[in-house]
Amino acid sequence: METAPWRLLHHGDREIIVDVNGGISVDGITNSPFPCEITFASMCDKGLVATWVDHELQLARMALLMFEEPIKEGITRAQLRLKKNTSMVEGSHWCHIIDAEPVALDAKEDMIVFSLWSRGLYCIDSSANEVWRLPLIETEGKSPPRSNEITSVSIVKDEVIAWTRGGTYQRISLISGEVLQTNELGVQCDIENVFVHDDTFLITSKDGWAWELMNDEITVARKLRGTIQHAVFDGDDWRMISWRDDLMLRGGMKKRSELGVQIINENETWMVIDNQGNRSPHMG
């Protein structure tokens, strides 16, 4: 891979590698179906659903790519400048122009949930039919600017868990969109990301704080030297990467020579993909 990897996903037994420029590698062949970076990507029952964003040109797309045929090369960025209002993701099963920036996305089976900046939360099926939509999460009393923006959505069993930057979170029925519960993390925060394992959450903030939440209670709080790039739960603890550090939430830290991108389980060993595309053991 010539460009640094951004995310590794699986479609059946095949590895799908997305790079930082929006290139998608399948079976060792890389193509860019749209000349922008991919900001969110998740697998649904039909394939890869992703969002492409270009801040300079102020455009965004959401599309579904299927893997029965090879990924196709799309237009160039120069061509996009000329046809930015009509160009679509090449070879997509469906593609839609989005009129606001996507800020969160998750998919499970035939359901796709995403949030748009300053708009709200949406659920569609994998054929792009709308299932439900909700407005922005309202917070009571005074709160810092932009604290009610949704920063993370996760599908857990038959529920959607949506988090705001200020620490408010809602449990929502995946099927109906009914808000089942609204809670607060209970600490001052500017949430950057939320990692999920079943009903256990690792909430990370932009100032380096990390909190584990179980049964709506904080069980661990830790201040790190930097923000967390990726984290997974190994059955006992959270494995994390933060720039050139490998960490355990309840344990120690080890330095690595390259920037960590993602933690994966490969042959029952926890490995880190770094920004050079190499793989090495986590905490190795």
Observed structural traits:
single chain, 284 residues, mainly beta, four-stranded antiparallel β-sheet, 27 strands, globular
Characterization of the model:
With 284 residues, the chain is mainly beta. It has a domain at 1-99. Helices cover 2% and strands 54% of the residues. The chain is built from 1 helix and 27 strands. It has one helix spanning 77-82, and strands at 5-11, 14-19, 24-26, 29-31, 37-43, 48-54, 59-65, 94-97, 102-108, 111-116, 120-125, 130-135, 150-156, 159-164, 168-173, 179-184, 191-197, 200-205, 209-214, 217-223, 230-233, 238-242, 245-248, 253-255, 260-266, 269-274, 279-281. The strands form 7 sheets. Strands 1-2-3-4 form a 4-stranded antiparallel beta sheet, with no helix packed on it. Strands 5-6-7-8 form a 4-stranded antiparallel beta sheet, with no helix packed on it. A hairpin with a 2-residue loop joins strand 25 (260-266) and strand 26. It is globular and about 50 Å long. The two termini are 24 Å apart.
